[in-house]
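User: Modeling request: complex.
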Amino acid sequence: MQDVAHVSAAHPVEFEVDASAYRHWNITYDGALARVAMNVDAAAPLREGYELKLNSYDLGVDIELADIVRRMRFEHPEVRTVVLTSGNDRVFCAGANIHMLGLSTHAWKVNFCKFTNETRCEIEDATESSKQVWVAACNGTTAGGGYELAMACKEIYLQDDGNSAVSLPEVPLLGVLPGTGGLTRLVDKRKVRRDRADVFSTTAEGIRGKKAVQWNLVDAIFPRSKFDEKVLERAKAVADAASKDLAPGTRKGVVLGKLAPEVGPSGRQYRHVSLTWDDTTRTASLTVAGPSAADVRTIEQGGEAMREAGSDLWSLRAWRELDDALLHLRVNHMKVGLVTVRTTGDLATIQAHDAALVKARDHWYAREVLLHMARVLRRFDNTSRSFFAFGDAGTAFAGCLLELALASDRFYMLEQDGVQVAMSELNEGGLPMHNTLTRLQTRLLGTPDQVEALVGKREPMDAEAADDAGLVTVRLDDIDWDDDTRIAIEERSSMSPDALTGMEQNLRFPGPETPDSKIYARLSAWQNWIFIRPNATGPAGALTLYGRPERPHFDWQRV
Amino acid sequence: MTTPNVDLTGKIPNNVGLSDDVKLRRALETWLPQYLEWWNDMGPSDFADKPVFLRTAVSVDPGGWAHYDYVKMPDYRWGIFLDPNAEAASIKCGDDAGAPAWTDVPGEHRNTLRRIIVTQADTEPASVEQQRMLGHIAPSLYDLRNLFQVNVEEGRHLWAMVYLLHKYFGRDGRDEADELLMRRSGDPDKPRILGAFNQPCDHWLSFFAFTMFTDRDGKYQLAALSESGFDPLARTTQFMLTEEAHHLFVGETGLDRIIKRSAELQRQDPNGDIRNQGGIDFDLIQRTINYWFTYSLDLFGGEISSNASTFFATGLKGRYREDQYTDHRAIEGSYRVPVVEAGKMVEQEVPLRNAMNEVLRDAYVSDCERALRKWNKTLEAAGSPTRLSLPSRRFHRHQGLYADHRFDPAGNPISQGEYEANLGRWLLVPEDNAYLLSIMKPCYEPGKFANWIAPPNKGIEGRPIEFEYVRLD
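Assistant: Request completed. Predicted assembly structure:
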């Protein structure tokens, strides 16, 4: 079987795209309104072996969408309503390309689903946090991932032409689950009655017209001849509502400059981030350098100065680099199981950076920078690699960078003069996890007193103090450091990667559940399990045989 | 809404035990008034009070299925009939070929079956809507009668499908039956499901082409469904096919008569100019063939189709005359489909089941070729040098593999520019309509025919050609 997932150092998937030449999307701007039309080029799949017919998508299509969502927030802060629609006459979106899924390895499917989920969550984040409200104008068949994409929008309008339906045909047709949060959003976000959701999710052809409105599957239906007009009307009303109480600041966009890392055979060097990997030990090393004093000075002048400084500001650039490095690691280095995380810089400078950023956060741009930082950290939380943070000589785990240690599965800290960690405002809020808690609260869930004791604490802590505060997993002196960390790495690398992924995902997210956390947890637990079961992907599985002449044969045993 | 008291069993000839079926009666009691309202709104315009010499199926006996008499169309007795030959039917194709047929809807296939039935059903009222104004410009009483015969029988075919929806699909089925009366051909907001049934049919040239080509798709769809493992569907469609044959006859002979007349006019005119003689020139006839043949090809669905494979595999829809095949599972075979790759045609081998639409389309195309040969014989006999042809099945497509590419009528890939520049030569254009409407004036005198069409060889049911097929006084 040909594997579309086949990637290599020679042909890595790149997540930076040329925003001036999207292949699959058309974007138009009109003041507070933007129109994003999906118009997938069937002949331009990310990998060979399938065609992207009927506005179906693969990772390449979604990488562009993610870029669009992100850029919209930074580059077009004047936009209040984003109308997501289709450039295809008959189909809004047919969902993930089934032939691509059929050709993909399990790991590729999982990475693909995770990335598309992150993009959907980002659409919701833009709607809720940036008052850039995405609405879906479903001007045709809206099936599977297409409907899930629509559900990520605040409102859904469906063309009422007797034909266009919304549907989740995954269970009845493919023997898998909707992979981008469809079931969760159905009952948790749209609050569709669970019994109706049951009927809907087992009806391949879906539901259209008035019934779709009655069941709250969509917010409104408009006749075909009036569809554009009614959508525009609605989009304007949404824009008006979203224009109230906007974050202040000149609403002039900041163009996201190219990251253009230096790419070598065993590493990617960005301006502030370095990622190196070693395929023989299946480990990677991720290092993030902290901000400069000049960065801090800019931020201290407030949001307008930050905006004028543009996308080169450390607070945005470094985190975009980190995001790109994480994605690269996930998709192009599947066998790397353990990532060691280091930071460099000056603790006090980072603390000053965070304080200034928090002070400036009323400004829309500062706000976007913070929201972006939070999203990158959530991507980190959701990355299925073991992360060991190493606080050794020259380390700078302070404030926003301390979050990387707190997000890691373990934090090793060296007992040595000058090796310290420090708190900032950003450890106390502003960079929430999917469970709504701070990483500090999550880590110290059983000892809220320890969290309380740390709030407002700004003095740097050495290894002992940090250990007492509950921040350090393993404290080592310089005699033990090399051996113990080497053994820890080797031991971790020897364990089952599947078990580690499952274990880490279970341990990383204690505390409350949110729709987002449910989506990721259920994706990992249910969808990924079903994907690998013979009933879906065995020789007689429904996904395997979709589009083929044979019919699926199920093992009827309930598990 | 109160349910009108309708004497259903008296009004509806049937062999489905309607009088004993409370559930079915209740459903039809609500639906019948809506149907009549739809017929009044969307059926043939202005001829409701005229007696028409119509064939009515009053029973499935050899003498009963074709009962001829004068009837006013709203009084036509739309009946519900199943083909009576039903001893121990079996599933005819797919994985379960040979197993006993389903007499009730299997839950596993319920939604798929409903979709198949609704899609077929939707075409029946659609064509009535498309043809509703044609009575005003009929070329003869004979043709007027044929139009109305087609219309009432399409209405009956809707009944036949609604019977299945009411009888076997519960509440969903009733909702779908209601919606069949709400969609409207060509309505931008509530269009009929399939493209060809939303195209205007403004004149009799299109009417004949429609009954020739589009109704012929119906024949093949019905024939494929008559092989269904869902026995009620198989038996319903078998009976529908007997009526459909007349519609095809109307279309095929209608075009043949036009061709014959055009050849006469060509001979009569000193310059061979048919239009000069008020007739329909062969280029226009060829464009009409191109137009309706290709729209009808779309109705068969995608060339490579998962749905087609599923329908066949599950035994819901067979091939045309499934019994002529020996292998009814068709799991092994393959089919070569020409596909476009980098602007060139190459053949792609696909599993036979996924090509079932194309297999059915093959049967249809060769049937159409047969008609073309017949028309060309008419031309030959009339001494005309002209020959008509079918365009390539890739030309002018809106569904399937070829919809996103442009081809000339011979099937060669061409550019968008070339395509657009030649559309007026290849397909019906608005000026054609204007011309046709200018020559199509009603001709209601018994035995007389409009100038642009030849009389038929014989009348209906042994009646002479000059018989008063519709009483207009």
